[in-house]
Design goal:
The complex is a heterodimer of chains A (487) and B (62).
Chain A: H1 3-23, H2 27-30, H3 36-41, H4 48-59, H5 63-75, H6 78-89, H7 92-107, H8 112-119, H9 123-155, H10 162-178, H11 182-210, H12 214-224, H13 239-250, H14 252-255, H15 257-260, H16 269-300, H17 310-316, H18 322-359, H19 365-389, H20 392-399, H21 401-405, H22 409-417, H23 423-443, H24 452-469, H25 475-485
Helix pairs in contact in A: 1-10, 1-11, 1-18, 4-11, 4-16, 4-18, 5-16, 6-13, 6-16, 7-16, 7-25, 8-9, 9-10, 9-18, 9-19, 9-20, 9-23, 10-18, 10-19, 11-16, 11-18, 12-16, 13-24, 16-17, 18-19, 23-24
Chain B: H1 7-24, H2 34-52
Classes of the chains: A mainly alpha (487), B mainly alpha (62).
């Protein structure tokens, strides 16, 4: 693919993104009296349509069109099941969304970790939750950056270096989050989401068509690769692995702060409903498209050495015209950037609100915002550095991200459903559970032959319950909180 | 029906997402096997969410 075409496409994407980011500026994010809630939550006035597209773009990273297609290529239809179980987990928004929204309005929370610290009446809970989120999500963002580096280097056959790709993605993420905080993130996310879904669907339809249509595609699979249509199929998705992968991802909408923070933002519950349903429709189509992509690569190029090459090989093949190939490339770039900028923005709000402000109790809202804005590029630089260094530990933390964050879930569910839950329980489950997950991934140990994804939640629940029962519950605060949550 | 009760429907779909493909459809190597099942499960999840959030316009509103 020509270098000129690649840079032209990236240039058009950059200009469009910047134009939308500047247009999204408003009194709440860039006015004279902008505060934390304005910059990081859009003053809790976000509308449903933009929220839906942004939630989709934030949730779906470069993993879908590269990783999920690759998983389908290697493991067959089990990859589809894995995504559908995750997808079902987003229904937790219908259960917890109104509660988050109500307590957020009542107590003025800016971050989910602030909510936990207040609910359990202990600022250490907020600090530990914020730091655990950074520990797992910065490496995750670094891997997304590295993905862009490989993508641009691969598509330009090395003419664009890995470092150039990583720096371009980091700069885009900083610009999109810095210009107007959550408003520029959400509006550029919306543009990127439309780009992702239109480009990927168009190309998937084109590829399936060139392979003879849906019926021919599935006939070939049934004849030449019958195992790809069943589980455990080729073996990648045996039941233990499937359960280990799906449990942490089922709770993604609660455990990952870059999406759970979104539950504070809708202008009304009607907007939240639009966000949820809009996301589900988007997610279903995007999942189907990514899976069809993997199946198409399996039929067209059955002998690839690495399954991650399924998407690049398909894009470089005669099945995809170069102009569409470059559009999909920008779609994948957009998927990565829209995930990274949301993570960066959420983490900077957590570090300023839950770490800095907790350690410097007198810090005004305006000062917290200034610190948050300084932290934003620092997080980007850290992610960039990790992407460049390619350390083994970073890879471990990135893989462990979804499992590591699931240890926060007992404290969140307990906050809304269990009056007896305490700060001691939250600290034990998040701190102890998080360390246990890192130890399991780092050593490769699988107790009873079960992967960390299966262990993380029961370990965290046990720690939460036992430590809560031996410590004193903040009963007045619990009462206030549950009343505000509508229970 | 109280929309909140529908959350049990979600749990049921999730359990079936493990049980049916791994127990009943493991030998059906066609598009109408696990692929169709998980596709229908996804659409059911969307429908259940539409119904579960039907009263979001007034519930909890100030």
């Amino acid at each position: 693919m020509s270098l000129g075409l690649i840079w032209a496409a990236v240039g058009v994407y950059l200009l469009l993104g910047l134009a939308i980011a500047f247009l999204s500026r408003s009194e709440s994010t860039n006015g004279a009296r902008v505060d934390m809630s304005g910059f990081f939550l859009g003053n809790r006035q976000m509308n449903g349509f933009v929220s839906a597209l942004s939630y989709s773009a934030t949730t779906y990273s470069a993993f879908m069109m590269v990783g999920l297609a690759g998983l389908t290529y290697a493991g067959g239809v089990g990859a589809f099941g894995f995504e559908i179980v995750y997808f079902a987990g987003v229904s937790l928004v219908a259960i917890f969304g109104p509660k988050f929204w109500a307590v957020g309005k009542r107590f003025g929370y800016v971050t989910p970790s602030e909510m936990l610290g207040h609910r359990y009446q202990d600022r250490r809970v907020a600090i530990v939750t914020a730091l655990a989120s950074c520990l797992f999500l910065i490496p995750y963002a670094a891997v997304q950056l590295a993905g862009v580096g490989y993508l641009l280097a691969g598509m330009s056959e090395g003419a664009i270096t890995f470092t150039t790709g990583v720096v371009v993605a980091a700069l885009l993420a900083i610009l999109f989050s810095f210009i107007a905080g959550i408003r520029s993130v959400m509006w550029t996310d919306s543009l990127q989401a439309l780009f992702m879904i239109v480009a990927s669907t168009l190309v998937a339809l084109l590829v399936v068509q060139s392979l003879g249509g849906f019926a021919a595609l599935f006939d070939t699979l049934a004849t030449d690769h019958p195992q790809s249509l069943t589980v455990p199929g080729p073996g990648l998705f045996n039941l233990t692995t499937f359960v280990g992968l799906t449990i942490p991802w089922f709770f993604f909408s609660l455990s990952n702060p870059q999406v759970s923070q979104r539950l504070f933002m809708p202008a009304s519950l009607k907007s939240m409903r639009q966000m949820l349903i809009g996301f589900l429709v988007f997610g279903f189509v995007y999942t189907l498209v990514s899976v069809l992509w993997g199946f198409s690569a399996l039929v067209a190029f059955p002998g690839l050495d690495q399954s991650d090459l399924a998407t690049p090989t398909l894009l470089a093949s005669e099945h995809v015209p170069p102009i569409l190939g470059v559009i999909v490339m920008v779609g994948i770039l957009a998927a990565a950037v829209s995930t990274i900028d949301s993570i960066m923005l959420t983490l900077s709000s957590m570090l300023s609100r839950d770490v800095y402000a907790q350690l410097a109790p007198g810090a005004s809202d305006a000062r917290q915002l200034r610190v948050g804005k300084w932290v934003l590029p620092v997080i980007a630089l850290l992610a960039l550095m990790f992407a460049e260094l390619q350390l083994d530990l970073i890879a471990v933390l990135s893989v462990a991200a979804s499992t590591g964050l699931v240890v926060i879930v007992p404290s969140i569910i307990g906050a809304f459903y269990w009056r007896r839950g305490t700060a001691g329980g939250a600290l034990a489950s998040i701190g102890g559970g998080g360390l246990a997950v890192i130890a399991l991934y780092a050593t490769g140990v699988t107790p009873l032959g079960l992967p960390p994804g299966i262990w993380a939640l029961p370990v965290a629940v046990t720690l939460f319950v036992v430590a809560s029962l031996v410590t004193r519950a903040p009963s007045v605060r619990a009462q206030e909180f549950l009343a505000a949550a509508g229970r | 029906m109280n929309p909140r009760r529908l959350k049990w429907g979600i749990w049921a779909v999730v359990v079936l997402c493990y049980a049916v493909p791994y127990a009943l459809l493991r030998d059906v190597a066609h598009w109408y096997g696990s692929f169709l099942f998980w596709g229908i499960a996804g659409l059911t999840i969307i429908l259940l969410n539409v119904l579960m959030t039907a009263d979001f316009n007034d519930r909890f509103e100030e």
